[in-house]
Amino acid sequence: MRICRFSSAERNAPQWGLLQQDQIVPIASLTDQTVVGPPVPLSAAKLLAPATPSKILCVGRNYRDHAAELNNPMPAEPLLFLKAPSAIIGPDDPIELPALSERVDYEGELAVVIGRRTRRLSDADDPLASVLGFTCLNDVTARDLQRRDQQWTRAKSFDSFCPIGPVIVTDLDPSDLVVETRLNGLVKQHGRTSDMAFPVPFLLRYISHIMTLEPGDIIATGTPAGVGPLAPGDIVEVSISSIGTLRNPVRPAT
Question: Coil, helix or strand for 156?
Fold first, then answer.
């Protein structure tokens, strides 16, 4: 399934839906796929961010080549940090560059969307059974503030610093997907999830022993090498095989 969240002229309030070719079938909620209305043409809808998480949990330095390009050591265990849920925007929404930062970077990533309440997974549990699906995410980062603060909350959490979308794809094997970021049409990042230091099942089990994961929560699994700065007027695209492309323009904050 390809789960989305959308608005349309017929109903201003956001709705959940299943994207099926050129139409969207409205459903009850993110985790309840009961059909609740007639199909809406995709041309008459605007796709929104496909999740509304209680938390966005991110994994730093999960690709060795990315750690190396920033001259950082690889962690012995997952390096975790949080982004504010208020940073979320959807497809085609603008990333806004704050006046407080002189360098804002793109970071294309695979995002895991949780499907059920998950706590303290055992060795016998299948971590992927807790997953609803996967989507694209851009972990936008004020790089200068990240280095200055020595902790990452401010640098990662400005409004618009977490584009996600365009859809959540279920029943997907996350072990070897291509993650690619393009800036103004030029490929800047190209990696595979098979290169992760800590793969998705390990991350799910590890995180579940730290905090309870709720339906709709997001885990951003890290970015490959090739991160770089954004400028007003840029178009940044994050593409992941079998999921699609998340596209966002860039402008100064207003």
Answer: helix
Would you say the pTM of this structure is higher than 0.90?
yes
Using a 10 angstrom Cβ sphere, with 0-12 exposed, 13-18 middle and 19 or more buried, the burial of residue 223 is buried
- The amino acid occupying position 234 is D
125 token code pair: 């549990």
Ramachandran quadrant class, 25 (left: phi over 0; alpha: psi -120 to 50; beta: rest):
beta
Report yes or no: 105 and 234 within 8 Å, Cβ to Cβ: no
Helices vs strands, H then E, count in the chain? 4, 20
User: CA distances (Å), 126 to each of 93, 116, 123, 171, 254, in order?
Assistant: 35, 13, 8, 14, 45
> Contact, 238 vs 179, CB < 8 A?
yes
Which residue type is seen at 190?
A: H
Query: Tokens standing for 18?
Result: 């299943």
Q: Is 171 helix (H, G, I), strand (E, B) or coil?
A: coil
pLDDT in tens, 3-25: 999 999 877 789 999 999 999 99
| 3-state secondary structure (DSSP) of residue 230 | coil
Cβ–Cβ contacts within 10 Å for residue 77, how many? 9
